[in-house]
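Re-running the complex after MR caught last week's input typo. The corrected sequence lines follow. Everything else is unchanged.
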Amino acid sequence: MLTASKLETIINDANLFPALREIAHKVANGTRISPDEGLLLYEKADLAYLGALANHIREKKHGNDTFFNRNFHIEPTNLCVYTCTFCSYSRLIKQRHEGWEYNLEEIMDIVKKYDGEPVTEVHIVGGVLPQYDLAFYTELFQRIKAHRPDLHLKALTPVEYHYVFKKAKISYEEGMKLMAEAGVDSLPGGGAEIFHPEIRDQIAGGKCSGEEWLRMHEIWHQLGKRSNATMLYGHIENYAHRIDHLEKLRALQDKTGGFQTFIPLKFRNQGNQMSHIPEVSTIEDLRNYAVSRIYLDNFGHLKAYWPMISRNVAQLALSFGVDDIDGTIDDTTKIYSMAGSEEQSPAMSTRDLVNLVRQVGRKPIERDTLYNVLTDYSEVTFAEDEQFRGYLELPVLN
Ligand code: V47
Ligand code: SF4
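Corrected-run output:
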C-alpha cells in the first residue's frame, strides 16, 4: 500500500517536473491546488505520483476506514422524455413495450420486500415520465416514510425535479421544500454528467443545464439537507471540461458545505448512441479518482461505484483516494448492466463487501447515509458454514 512516506520520496525525486513537485508540496501542506494545476495533473502526472498524493489525502482524512452501507435501489421506470446519448437504459414513451413503468403500489411492493431487513437506505432514480408528476412523487415519498420511517430516502436528481417543478409551475425553492416535507432525506449525485455546455448540449441536450443542477443542490443544502455529486467521464469530454466540472463543485461546496460524496462514473459504451467511443482504461479510471481526490479538498468522501467498474478495480481504487464503495445495492439495476457493466444484477452480501475491503488491508465500516458509523467490522467474524444469502447475510459477533 502507498503511504505518506511515499509522498516524501516523490517530493525528493530530483527528476520530478518542478510544477509537479510544487503540487506535491501543496498536498503535503494541505494547500488547495489551482485549476491550472489540476489540468497539469490530468495531462502530465503518472499513476504512481497521483496515487501517492491521493492516498496521502485519503489516509489523512480517514486512515484505513472504508465505508459502505446496506441499501437497495428502485428504478420506477426506464421510459424517458429525454434521449441522452450515453444512456443505454432509457426508452422513449412510444417504445413503451420495451420498458417498465411501475405504479405507486408496485413501487411500495418493492419497498415492502425489505420489511424487517437491516437496510438503512433506499436510492430511487429513473427516467423522466410525464405522469410521474408532483402529486405522484409527493404521495410516493409520504407513503414510503409512513411505511418505514427509519429508511433514509435518497431520491431523484435535479433532472427529474426540474421537469416536475416546471410542469407544476412552481419554483425550485418551493418544490425542494415540498419534497423535503414529503420525506426526501437526501439527493443522490446523478444527472450531473459534464456541466460544461460544450459537452452537455451534445450528450444530454434538453435536460436541466449544469447551472440548474448546481442551483437545485444549492437550494437543497440551504434547507439543511445533504447530497452527492457525480461526473460522467471518459467519452467526448477533455481534461479541461473535467476540471471545469470539479471547479464548479468545489466552489459550491465552499459556499454550502452540503455535499457528502463525489462519485466519478465511468462511461460504459454498450447499447447507446456513443457505442463507437472506446471506454477509457483502468489506469485512466485510477488517475481520475486520484485527481478528483486531490482537487476536491473540501469533499469528505470519494466513492467508487463497484457495479460499474468491477470489484477488482474498486479494490485498487482504495489506494487512489477512494474511501467509500457504496453498498450492498441489492438491485435489478439496469443503468449499468444495459451499458455494458460486468454486473448484470448487482448485489453483494455484507460479508462480500467486508472481505473485499479486508483483502486490500483496509478497515470495513458500515455507515448510514450521513456517515454515522453503524458497525466497525474490524473485529467481526463470519460463521464458516454461513450460506450466501445476499444482502440479508448477518455477521456473527465474536
Ligand atoms: O446520471 C447513465 C450515469 C447516473 C451511463 O449518489 C452512466 O450515491 C456510465 O448517479 N455509463 C445515475 N454511466 C447513477 C448515479 C449514482 C450511482 C451510484 C451512487 C450514486 C449516489 C449515484 O448514471 C446518471 C449518469 O451519469 N450513467 N448511463 C453509462 N452508459
Ligand atoms: Fe433519461 Fe436519465 Fe437516460 Fe437521460 S440519462 S435519457 S434523463 S434516463
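None of the earlier attempt is carried over here. Residues 5-62 form one domain. The first helix runs from residue 4 to 11.
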